[in-house]
Amino acid sequence: MRNGIRLTILFGAFSATLALVLAGCGGGDDSSEPVTKQQFVRQANTICAEWQKERSERAYAALEEAPGKKPTRAEEKEELFEILAIFEETNDGVEELDPPAGEEQKVEAITKAFDESIAERKAHPYEERFGKRDYFNKPNKLAEDYGLKECFI
After folding, report:
1. Which of 40, 47, 73, 147 could form a disulfide with 93 if both were Cys (CB 3.0 to 4.6 A apart)?
2. Cα–Cα distance between 78 and 81 in angstroms, integer?
3. How far, in Å, are 32, 51, 53 from residue 58 at the CA level?
4. Is 131 a residue whose pLDDT tops 70?
């Protein structure tokens, strides 16, 4: 239970940080000039950098909490779903940004690929991350090709 409370606090802190980042990115304001690809990439990478930071902090906290202890399958599934939920929030934040003019389909393809991969991964929670397939090859490649170096799982 202690772990659940800590995760709730971390998730709340992450959500608050994401809200502040989104507020400062100018997404959703139709009265401003169109965003450039460079501006969009910078905004999205800022959002995703918070995800990467959160993911790293969670991994280190888990190692410190129970060094050398192998988690149960139920604990692994719970952790997977919590991490995927945080990335879903991150992906939603990127979706809320105004894409550059003429780039809407490319940006939508990236966020849609992440949504599909997350849903597929949730459907197979006990399969090894780098086992028979990596669920996130396609969205990671699309994001990287677009310049979203921080937006990967």
Report:
1. 47
2. 5
3. 37, 11, 9
4. no
